[in-house]
Amino acid sequence: MKQKNQLTLFVLAGIALLVLPLLLQHAGNAWVRIVDNSLLYVMLALGLNIVVGLAGLLDLGYIAFYALGAYSYAMLNSPQLSSAFPAVAAIFPHGLSTPLWVALPVGAVLAGVFGVLLGTPTLKLRGDYLAIVTLGFGEIIRIFLNNLDAPINITNGPKGVDLIKPISLFGLNLGKPHTLFGYHIASVSQYYYLFLILVIFTVIICHRLQMSRIGRAWMAIREDETAAKAMGINTRNMKLLAFGMGATFGGISGTMFSAFQGFVSPESFSLMESVMVVAMVVLGGMGYLPGVILGAILLASLPEVLRYVATPLQAMTGGRIDAAILRQLLIALAMIIVMLLRPRGLWPAPEHGKSLQVKK
Amino acid sequence: MDILLQQIINGLVLGSMYALIALGYTMVYGIVNLINFAHGDVLMVGALTSWSIIILMQRSMAGTPGWLILLIATIIACVVCGVLNYVIEKLAYRPLRNAPKLAPLITAVGMSLLLEVLAQIIWKPDYKPYPTLLPSQPFNLPGGAVITPTQVMVLGVTVISLAGLMWLVNYTRLGRAMRATAENPAVAALMGVKPDNVISATFIIGAVLAAIAGVMYASNYGTAQNMMGFLPGLKAFTAAVFGGIGNLAGAVVGGILLGLIESLGAGYIGPLTGGFLGSNYVDILAFVVLICILTLRPSGLLGERVADRA
Questions:
Q1: What ipTM score was computed for the predicted complex, to two decimals?
Q2: B307 in a domain, yes or no?
Q3: Which of A74, A122, A281, A286 is least surrounded by Cβ atoms within 10 Å, i.e. has the fewest?
């Protein structure tokens, strides 16, 4: 009986998800764009969930992998390298253009390699120091991205990389709207379906990882590293694997972000973004996939919802409070209040059997 | 060679500011095993509060000498920051004292963000010019270096603050209580020391030092802004770890050394890397130092002193 109920639930949810962008399109493309952004953040949060939620390694520099994925796609699909290096311009006069099935793995692998590289010095660090060092790594990568425009212009510095070509899938250019059975599908909706496929893929992988020996090893490391080592778990390899896998998801998400937005600059990859992704994982429910997805959707769509509240506030306070500041304020307050009142998150993993404990 | 002496002086000035902030980090970590992420932002609040007071006094009591305005502004900033840190500790950190390590860390990050946003709302995000209240005629030193009265003030105030802290920790009852709690909180409680009071006092003293450092920082660099505390806070934490976390002398040594490394690094990084890296990469130096010290000598230069909670 429960199986049948679950199946109908999944089918209904599936239909709802498929139809969503077409419905939202009537309200305006901006709403579909909000959902697209939320899906990107869901991917990021799921990736960070592996590092923070499963393995218990507080990573405050996660956005660096997002940045690496985004910039790798940007380098491979824009006139940036052609304008910087005449040798490249000779071969690709209109800028590079790599198909998705090459660019996506490149972004993922680059981020994964950097994840392992940045994880290596942190293996012996305790929670607080790990947070600071990962924060430092995030900042280092951002500083490098911001300053690599002299003496050789690789990343174009604070001006960012422009004119990134949209994704072209099986000859279908996702940057242009198409019509299907008389329905007009805008470019943002096409991206929505691509992101949805990637998110479902990510959820499946994360779920399978959590249920496997590797996931259990991570959770053992999270609970007590010494005991895990005593049980024969190779903590070094498992930690590096956690960093690498988390980084890979970040890289994939970054690649998609760069293609979707068409423009990347180091400003999008600040510490605030890292903190926001950590907030999504921790406030949603650390280590529990539905909780993490809920946290990601809530925090990602928050600024748009706040826009309606923020405009009168902005008028009242003479321009001091706008939607962005309000969102930061609410995230900060949420982090403090949720940690004080509901430290396991808004939708934590259900504690099976623990309700039998005697309450003191 | 001609910039060496100048960079050393700049390094000492910068290092003394880092030392003041690092002391706050190290004292708190030594007692409650918590990195107070919000400490750098307490510095920022001190700087911006003093800025507001200075502007207010310059407008309403326009005859007072510059140094007096600076002194009053610093004192008021110290009081404000002390109260702020006391409230933060009581509301956000005390309930989580026995929680698993992740909760106070997240709360601290959230508190840091909260302070930055509140400062942005109160003071607006623009860079404010910090008035130079001391005479700006620099002194010429042998060797071609110059030192401004503001820099002399920074060095002097740091020395006085450190002396005051040393007296407090070594010769007063509160200092003895702090040292006892840092060594073993349970036994200290058995000896009649109230841990809550000692911890609050530690936070308040740390905040006072941070406020002084904030005023010095703003005076030295001439600007104040709501995000100014983030990077110095991070670097001061690096300095605290560098010297040995929990160790007061270590914080001072670490701070001064880090200031010198940064200053000399900024001056020589261009020639050293053949022009590939410029002085805009200087922030990376602090993180490189942190990673090196955590990999090679995790207890810091002078050895760490954390509470024995076994």
A1: 0.85
A2: no
A3: A122
